[in-house]
Amino acid sequence: MTDTEWYASWFDTSYYHLLYNHRNEEEAREFMERLVHFLALPPGSKVLDLACGKGRHARTLQALGLDVVGTDLSPQSIEFAQQYSNEHLAFQVQDMRIPLENAAFDAVFNLFTSFGYFDHLEDNLQVIKAIGSMVVPEGMLVIDFLNAERVKATLVPEEQVHRGTIVFNIKREVLNGKVIKHIAFSDQGKVFQYTEQVQLLGMSDFQTLLEDHFRIQDVFGDYRLSPFDPDTSPRLILIAKKR
Asked: What angle do CA 153, 155, 158 make, to 5 degrees?
């Protein structure tokens, strides 16, 4: 497995979902409600949940009256999500660098740090270009990303996470502009090792990435849509409109 393919392997394992099964569903639902209200998306708006995972945000968006498509690179995640499919909610496997054909979305949501996985700036630009091609004029883009400055200031170098009988040994480091997480564990007599890496992109980085296709209009710092503070905010949430 090459470094650029770590996400394709790790995100498609059941262990990834086990490690992160503590995610707060109520918080995610309330975040979607606030976003839809803030964006003033009318019922029936067509939206894309880009890198949707198992579809928890997509399901909430559809419950709020939107027509939703969720895409993800992980076949396992999409297979799980498809049990919730209906006439207003669809899922498919898709690389975020490649646009869906004949797409015309009123809004695209990229949530829970589902960006910055690649090694090269060109890949990030390709993602933004693909999104731009799928959004209608004056359409919206929401990017929910980590706050890079706070991550660097509060990094926990090592920890153990217990999930049932499995103990995940996690080591973190900041290297070459990325936060890298090394994950090791044993299960049924086998030893597993995976790596996560996310580029530490800040506000200026996103301004550069988006400038040809989108104009940033609002910036928030948490899921309650509080003002962004680079030192204290847990998240960097960008609201941008297509140029």
From this structure: 155
Structural domain harbouring 128: 3-147+201-242
Cα 37 to Cα 33: distance, rounded to the nearest angstrom? 6
The domain total for the chain is 2
Looking at the predicted structure, is the pLDDT value of residue 226 above 60? yes
- 128 and 60 in a common domain: yes
What confidence tens digit (pLDDT) does each residue in 126-135 have? 999 999 999 9
3-class secondary structure, 176: coil
Same domain, 96 and 169: no
Residue 98 amino acid letter:
I
Measured CA to CA, the distance from residue 84 to residue 62 in angstroms comes to: 10
pLDDT score at 135: 98
Give the end-to-end CA distance of the chain in Å, rounded to a whole number. 38
The model's pLDDT over 192-215, given as tens digits with 9 standing for 90+, comes to 999 999 999 999 999 999 999 999
Claim to verify: residue 155 and residue 233 sit in the same structural domain: no
